[in-house]
Amino acid sequence: MLARLRPYLPTAALAFLIFYFGFHALTGDAGLLKSDSRDATLVAKTRELAALRAQRQDLEMRAQLMRDASLSRDLLEERARSLLGFADPRDYVIRMKP
User: What is the pTM of this model?
Assistant: First the structure.
């Protein structure tokens, strides 16, 4: 019986390999059926990147204003009051949780 099936074994093994790799190409971690989750992840990461770029731009602007060549008196006063915990008697202080 095994002698009759021997010519078909390479074909069966090749068919199994094609099925195996085809199945994982569709349903694997990077498969074609997972494209929706990849697209959602890409959109979320793009939004996060835009927020981080805006935050970095704000921090770079603040750092630029704190340099000796272009020192902003308002920003310096704001940072000094924040670090020392002082407020002007005419200021409204609104406490927020961090």
Answer: 0.50
